[in-house]
Amino acid sequence: MGSSLRVAWDNGLTSYNFGPDHPLAPVRVELTMALCREFGVFDAPGVSFADVEPATDEQLKLIHEPGYIEAVKRAGTTLESDIPFCLGTPDNPVFSQMHDASALVAGASVAAARTVWNGEAEHAANIAGGLHHAMPNHAWGFCVYNDASLAIAWLLEQGAKRVAYVDVDVHHGDGVQRMFYDDPRVLTISLHESPLTLFPGTGRPSETGTGAAEGYAVNVALPAGTDDARWLRAFDATVPPLLREFQPEVLVTQQGADTHTLDPLANLTLSLDGQHRTYQALHRLARESAGGRWVLLGGGGYELVQVVPRAWTHLLAEAAGSGIDPDAETPKEWRDFVRTRTGEVAPLYMTDNRTQVFRSFDDGFDPDDAVDRAIQATRNAVFPSHGIDPSL
After folding, report:
1. Which is nearest to 378 in space by CA: 164, 215, 223?
2. What residue stretches are annotated with the Histone deacetylase domain (predicted)?
C-alpha cells in the first residue's frame, strides 16, 4: 500500500455550522487541525492530504431519500424551517447553503473510503465527519447527511462484501444502524451511554438486526458514570471477538470524543487517556482483522477546547504511526492561537494523568456490577449469531 494515513481536508468543512450558540461548533475541528500541525502530525512519513469534493446527489441517494435531499437544498436557500424533515429544530437549525456544507462533509468521508479501498493509503480520516444520527428521510441529532453511512454504502457499491463499523461516541449510532439493519454485509457496533439517560433513546442490546442480518447490529449500553476502566472492559469484551470473527475488508470507526467526563451533553466519565487507549486498540484491530484498511471519522464532542482537539490529535497521530506522548506539553503557539481564537485558556498537557488499567472480562462476570450486566446482555444477544460462546 501507499502512505500510512491520508487526511480528507478542505477549509470549507468548517462551513458546517449551525450558528454561534449551537453545541456542534466547527472551531473544535479548526483547533484540532492546528494542534496536529504544531505537533508535526501531518509532516510524518507517509501522511498526505486527499482532495475533497461534495457528495453528488446520486451518491447521497445511496442512503437518503430524494425528497429529503431536495428539502435540505430548499431550506439552505430559503432559510425556512421544514419540520417534517426536522430542519429548523433547535437541534438542527437551518443555515445558509446547508446542502453544500453537508454534502462536502459527506464527500470527505467518501474520499476517505475511496483512498482505503483503492489502496492509496492504509488509513484515511475525515475528522469533520461522523454525523451518525442522520436518517434516510430527516435530519437528526445535529446531523444532516449521514456521511458514515455514505462511506459504507459507497464501499458496498464498489464490491465490498464485509464492512465493520465501530462507534465509540457517547450517543448511539442510530442512523448507521438503521440504514444497514437488514444487511449482513455490514456489522455495526455501538458503545454508548444507556438510552435510559441519553439521546437518542435507542441502542438497547435487544436491537440486533433483522432477517439475514440478525446479530449484525451490536449495542453496548453503558450506565451513566462509566469510567475508563469499566468502559475499556466493555470494549475489550465485545469489539475484538466480533471483529476477529467477522474479518471485515474495511473497518470504519466513528470517534466521538463526548465520552469524556468534561463533556457538557453526556454523563460518562472517560479521560483523554482512556480515549487514547481506545484509539490504539482500534488501530491494532484494523491491522488484525481488516488488513490495515481503516477509515476514521470524527463525531460528537462538545468540550471544544479542553477535550476535542487533544483527543483527535492523539487519534490522528496514532493513525499516522507517530503517536504523541500523553505527558507532552501542548505547544505554546497553539495555546496562543486558542486564546486568540476563543478567549479560553488552553490545556497545558496532552494527558489527564489517568492510569489505564482494566480487568478483563475473561476474569469472570459480576452480576452485581451494572457494566458487567450490560456487557453480558450484549454478548448473549449477538455472540451466538457469530458462532461465539457468550460465556467464554
Report:
1. 215
2. 22-317
